[in-house]
Specification:
Elements: E1 10-11, E2 18-24, H1 28-31, H2 39-59, H3 72-104, E3 112-116, E4 120-125, E5 129-133, E6 139-142, E7 146-150, E8 156-160, H4 167-180, E9 184-186
Parallel strand pairs: 6-9
Antiparallel strand pairs: 1-2, 2-3, 3-4, 4-5, 6-7, 7-8
Helix pairs in contact: 2-3
Length: about 190
Amino acid sequence: MENQATNSASTKPGEGKPEIVVDVELKLHDVYTPFDWNGQNLIRWVLAILAGYIVYDICFSPSSQLQFFSDANSISAVIITLGVFIGLGLVLFPYLRLHSMFRKAPGFKGPKKYVFDAQGMRFESEHAKGEYKWSVFARILETRKAFALAQTDYTATYIPKRCFASPNDILAFRYLVRENFKGRWRLRRE
């Protein structure tokens, strides 16, 4: 069941400035998207393909020097195993790490309410609440499916687009970021 925002871009009493309310229940596919076209996934897939090519070149290529060793089958088995682990580690490890976080961390479970305005973001869930100025975020990125408000290179707040009440709220959120966020941002032009 997807939670949708109950109150779209509204105005605070007396202020006349837009406020965007988004109710979010985060899912794993909102955070980990291995088949989306972005720099991080491109690097991951290129490295996995390169590892596969190296394994092929060392073990199976007709010009391979490995075939002249007496223990060529044993060496090939070790190299193939390492190649498989490297390939799986590049593609599967991030998924397993996030899956574990979603399963174990109470902060990922349950609905959360985010309120965005010119000052920043207010957050409320069963486990916590807080207020964040725009300056707490290092950068804001927009993907095809979500906005990632990154505090560091390793932590971010994900706001899935499916949770916005309307496409107008997404446009209003982009406007808030462009007008109020002084850090680096990359937003779509849609």
